[in-house]
């Protein structure tokens, strides 16, 4: 039976660095550990929280229940013609996996370099950055069903991926613990350079035919310049999703705010840059007590030191209110509020 600890600090286990305690805490090394934990009454009688790297959640209070942290970090791969199938344990650090694949010249993940967090959380919100989403390279995952203790396998279609969304945030929220993810990568490298900033930086570096390593390095460089490093300033990346709105509403907003930053999703939908909306409301770089928004990216809420989760949450509510007042758009939090 894996050890269950009581009253464990989570302050170093969330990238906001806010103080919170877990009533119970258990570290899991493999699926056998999970099956054993399943036989304990705590597993069934307590609220459960699967905690990866804590880089997409905000603790607003202590967690009264059992926190489960997966520690399985294995990587296996299998080459089939031009395809490379890489399987990684849920506890593996995401960027360590990306680095492994980049070093082996397995193409597909390089645009997702330097995203914090664990492999196990990556399908939950279908992580994405710089023109690539997890769903583009996701093959399947293994997941432990909390109610029955059985292992299920989900293929790409079964996960119902969309922008920052999956079945694990919707119908199956809180019902499965993802234990391993398999990615379909390629031995052939077709760089995805649509994102303007990548092209610009490659040009500065004189890289006309970039390698996988070049793209990974350029993405990392852009991210380091734009986003605060949680090791020095607490944050969870984008606090809100970029809102997707219908064509009619978009037409109205564009006529009032012609400079609005947007992307075409399809014939009927437009995605707005939430960072721009928040900046227009005067929040960019603002310091409010122990909290604020990041000076280079208004979409990122930060902990300037000793902020509580509740303070950060209250700031997010104020931002939602002011954006709604000015643009009649309700921002949705991307970060999981605990
Ligand atoms: P956690 O925060 O620990 O958990 C997040 C959610 O997933 C929780 O609901 C948790 O219960 C659930 N969960 C975790 N592990 C499992 C599991 N094994 N099984 C089932 N459920 C699980 N995200 C992007 O998409 N793109 C970015 O560019 C990006 N940039 C970021 C930059 C910074 C500086 C930071 C701090 C965050 C950024 N993020 C980004 C957000 C974050 O890195 C991702 O959401 C990441 O996947 C979270 O992983 P985690 O292990 O920290 O998850
Ligand atoms: N912008 C502003 N003001 C700001 C911030 C942004 O005007 O304060 C403008 C930028 O100038 C740019 C546009 O908004 O024209 C978009 O900004 P950026 O390229 O920084 O990307 P984003 O839409 O803010 C999204 C993801 C990030 C991801 C980047 C790169 C969401 C919610 N966020 O941010 O993901 O890294 O694109 O692909 O989709 C995360 O999810 O935590 C995250 C960091």
Task: Tag the structure with descriptive keywords.
Uridine Diphospho-n-acetylenolpyruvylglucosamine Reductase, domain 3, 8 helices, 20 strands, 4-stranded mixed sheet, 338 residues, 25% helix, single chain, binds flavin-adenine dinucleotide, 5-stranded antiparallel sheet, Uridine Diphospho-n-acetylenolpyruvylglucosamine Reductase, domain 1, 3 domains, alpha+beta, globular, 30% strand, binds uridine-diphosphate-2(N-acetylglucosaminyl) butyric acid, Uridine Diphospho-n-acetylenolpyruvylglucosamine Reductase, domain 2
Give a structural overview.
This protein has 338 residues and is of the alpha+beta class. It has three domains: 67 residues, 2-Layer Sandwich (Uridine Diphospho-n-acetylenolpyruvylglucosamine Reductase, domain 2), CATH 3.30.43; 112 residues, Uridine Diphospho-n-acetylenolpyruvylglucosamine Reductase, domain 3 (2-Layer Sandwich); 104 residues, UDP-N-acetylenolpyruvoylglucosamine reductase, C-terminal domain (Uridine Diphospho-n-acetylenolpyruvylglucosamine Reductase, domain 1), CATH 3.90.78. Helices cover 25% and strands 30% of the residues. It has eight helices and 20 strands. It has a five-stranded antiparallel beta sheet with strand order 6-7-12-10-11, with no helix packed on it. Strands 1-2-5-3 form a four-stranded mixed beta sheet. The protein has a four-stranded antiparallel beta sheet with strand order 13-19-18-17. Helix 4 packs across helix 5. The two termini are 27 Å apart. The mean pLDDT is 97. Bound molecules: flavin-adenine dinucleotide and uridine-diphosphate-2(N-acetylglucosaminyl) butyric acid. Flavin-adenine dinucleotide binds next to strand 3, strand 8, strand 12 and strand 13. Uridine-diphosphate-2(N-acetylglucosaminyl) butyric acid binds next to strand 13, helix 7 and strand 19.
